[in-house]
Amino acid sequence: MTDQAHVRHRHAAEGRDLSYPPLPEALIVPVYDNHTHLEIADGDDPLDYREQLDRASSVGVRGVIQVGNDVETSRWSAEMAAIEPRMLAAVAIHPNDAPDYDTRGELDDALAAIAELATRPRVRAIGETGLDFFRTGEAGRAAQFRSFEAHIEIAKQNNLALQIHDRDAHRDVVATLKRVGAPERTVFHCFSGDVELAEICADNGWYMSFSGNVTFKNAVGLREALVSAPRALLLIETDAPFLTPTPFRGRPNAPYLIPHTLRAMADYVSTDASMLAAQISSNTELVYGRWDSEPVASPPMTAIGDVA
Questions:
Q1: How far apart are CA 32 and CA 60, in angstroms?
Q2: Is residue 104 within 8 Å of 62, Cβ to Cβ?
Q3: FRET label pair with 284: which of 5, 62, 86, 112, CA 20 to 30 Å apart?
């Protein structure tokens, strides 16, 4: 059974509603989804990446950063971004995958592959990389640190943004960034910290990207961090197909659901949704550049998740 089939089988066994939620009301001012995984097929009726992007466009999500987690998905992300004008790419080895590559003696080769992909014109970020002490135990941490530092160097060498995965590792992520020097544009993807971490990010000019989990009932600390964060450092994402915002938590997530999170964030910081969208859209283009370069070829007729 493939990993994607396993996910769908597990969700079905849990009795989860696997249907995609309806389209939300379109945003007046468009934004970008700064972190998504369109290579992962989810739901009862998985959507092709073009259908995902068409739905997103229809509700005011003008583009996405398609993020890789290993060599295969990073290559897919780079190749799809090269031909799809609504997509830019981020490439990296996920911190939970770094120990597996290391155990097989393949981490150096994997990092070399990421370094090559980083040179492609519509790859605009290195990510997601970082540290995850929730899923990876002590034995795998040395590989995580080595991989993280190598990704930071790749980002700096290519003047790319850095997308950080940080789970149960705030102190070590911050210490690593300060020790080796953070890239000019550093993003805490799916920001999971509190007001203290938000203040550290603000002091260092690091961006904070909020996902659908900021809408969850128990996410009081996240909302406090959001309110305390400078708006010039705010980004928004889905991390689709995960972290679907309220009121559809538990169902498959997709870039077209960004309006739910955006409107909730605007309520939390007591501002107009269009004003917040304009700020976030500007922030996103400062981090990644513009999406409007021409595609180099017609999109191939491949299903989502196929890797050329």
A1: 8
A2: no
A3: 112
